[in-house]
Amino acid sequence: MARPRIYPNPDNGRIEELKETSRVGSNETALRCTAFQLLLSDVPRESVCQALIVTERDLRKWIKAFNEKGVDGLIVKKRPGRTSILNGEQAQELAQLIDQPEKAEREFWTAKAFHGYIGKAYEIECSYQTVVRFFHNQGFALKVPQTWPDRQDEEKRKVFLEELELLYKDRKVDIWFQDETGFEGDPRPRRRWDKKGNKTKVTKNGDHLRMNVMGMICPRTGEFFAIETSHSDTDTFQAFLEEANKTIKLKRKKNILILDNASWHKKKILEFYGWKPKFLPPYSPDLNPIERIWNTMKARWFNNHVCRNAQQLMDRLDQAILDVIDNPKRNQKTASIGTLF
Asked: What does pTM read for this prediction?
């Protein structure tokens, strides 16, 4: 008796995904993706086999893989034991080309662009997956560029780091870093894992809920202090300093408070109590370790989390701040300044 015919599950992959995979995959992967584009468009199976010159047995095997793993089940994996196409002196030359895209009159590479370039310039016939593996093997990774200000004064940054290192080594001095940041009720969604075919959604209420947080941290001890504010100005900053003075028991004779160059940090009427202010070089947030604390808080507590009203946002912020306060050892690692030197 003939085996019952199996059919592709349309929820396991969209035609757009199949088209994209067929463009960057090997010829065999492209063939499989084309077959499924036809099947999901209700083209009869017999017509698919005839048009693509494939057997019913092959089609059945592909459908089984597609139903189990989605589009990933159609990608042809590299067979073990095969000698790499990109090797020897040519591999070294290509690695230099990745590191110096200006040699090919480019500012940067994508794997797709590099695949096309070496096909034309070097007449190398290889799959897109081979190029991606080559990138990884040469120590390259796909990264999202970090925005970087172009107004930094390198001489001032150098002097600041030299002074910071001397303070860091002085056992009579504690260094504190201060900053403000904003937390939104419906932050920008981040990537997450979900089943293929699911429409991944995050609520966005459009109410533009936002709260500011003023904080300071001592990287040596991991001690953290913060208050929530509606905005940042001289008055709120002075209130922050007053509350910090009441709450924090300073452990060393001299305490330096490093701040950015916001106007409300530099008013002559400010009372800094037991701290002596020291300002970062202009446009240098990367030299302030508390920025890493903010990033951790947002990732841990506001990653795809939506607050529907101001009270929910404040409650969530309370939890996030207490989580940082209660974990000084974790803060010591996150806000370490030893890596700056």
From this structure: 0.61
